[in-house]
Amino acid sequence: MNRLNTCTNHLKQKNRKALVSYLVCGDPYPSATLHAMREMAAAGVDIIELGIPFSDPMAEGTIIQRGHERALTHEISLQKTIDQVKEFRKYDQNTPVILMGYANPIEQYGYEQFASAAKTAGIDGVLIVDLPPEEAAPLSAAMYGQDLHCILLLAPTTSHSRAQMILSKASGFVYYVSLKGVTGAGHIDVSEVKLMYSRFKELSDLPLYVGFGIKDAETAQKVAEFSDGIVIGSLIVDIMGNMDSHNETEIATNVGNVLRSIRSAIDQ
Known about the structure:
This protein has 268 residues and is an alpha/beta fold. The protein has one domain: TIM Barrel, CATH 3.20.20.70. Helix content is 49%, strand content 15%. The chain has twelve helices and eight strands. It has an eight-stranded parallel barrel with strand order 1-2-3-4-5-6-7-8, surrounded by nine helices. α10 links the parallel β7 and β8. α2 packs parallel to α12, α3 packs across α11 and α4 packs parallel to α6. The two termini are 30 Å apart.
C-alpha cells in the first residue's frame, strides 16, 4: 500500500490532524535537505512536500522564490530531487514524501519515466501547481500505474461544479489554497477559510488539508480545529534561508523546533 494511504488510515484511527511541511530541495545548499527532512519526521510531520526547484515558480511568494533561487545556484534538478528522496529512504521507510513543483521539468523527463523513477526512489505522489485537471490525465495514468498519487488543488475561487470535477479526479489528499495570491501572501481569515472548507469537504471523503497563510502555531491550531490537517511552507523556507550557518544540523534543529511547537498546538 502507498505510504500516503497508510498515513491517512493511521491519522483516522488516532483522530489526529495531519501536519504537512514543505521545503525546497537543495535549499539553502544540498546537504541541508536530508538533515531537514529527517528532522521534520522526528518533529511529528506526517507528510513531507519536497519542492522541485524551478526558474519560474509562479505560485510562490518572495520567500519560496528565493528558496528556489538558492537551490538553483547548486544546479538542483528534478533528477537530483528524486535522488534526494532515495537517500532519505535509507533512514525513513514510513514518512510519505510528495514532490511539489511545475509541469515543465516532469514533461521534459517524460511521464512514464518519471512515475517509474519516483516509485523506485520511494516517492508517494506529486502535486503539479500549473497542471490543471483537464490536462493531467497522461501524468495521472502514469502515476496511478505505479500506485502513486496525483494531488490536486482547490482555491477560494473554485466553483461548486469545478470542485466536484477536481475531487472526482483527485487521490491521496486535496490541497486547499486558503487565500487568493501566492504563497506567503498574508494572514488568513480563519472564519472565511472555515466556511469555504466546509463547502468543499461535503463533496468528498478525501482528506482536505489547508495551506497558504499559516505562519504560526496559533493560526495552525485554529485551522486544525475544523480541518483534516494543515500545510506549513513559507515559514520553514524562511527559517532555512535566513540561517547564517553552513551547519546543516543547526538548520535542521531550528526547523524541528518550530514544527514541534506547531505539532503540539494542533494536537491540543
